[in-house]
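User: Before I run my own analysis I want an independent prediction to cross-check against. Here's the chain; please return only the structure tokens and, at the end, one sentence I can use as a sanity check.
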Amino acid sequence: MRENKATNRKQFIGTVVSDKMNKTVVVLVERLVKHPLYKKYIRRRRKFMAHDAQNICRAGDKVLIEETRPLSRHKRWMVKQILEKAKVLDKGEKESA
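Assistant: Structure tokens:
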């Protein structure tokens, strides 16, 4: 009989950039990588499609995604937790930068 061990699945923190699909969100993950020759840090970005079973994620949310089995042609990630909800602006309100 197999023991139920903790799995070592990859996890990333990213921002939801699209929530237009049903039960799917697109998450943008940014990371800093040191250039091998110039030793300067470069920002690398990658988009992942992640499964959102309850359709609760909205664009701008900060989420934790975890690697899972293939769910569709492009989906291999699942939203594990919403870390921070996006700020909702009213129609007349402008964001101060």
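Sanity check: The domain at 11-84 is CATH 2.40.50.140 (OB fold (Dihydrolipoamide Acetyltransferase, E2P)).
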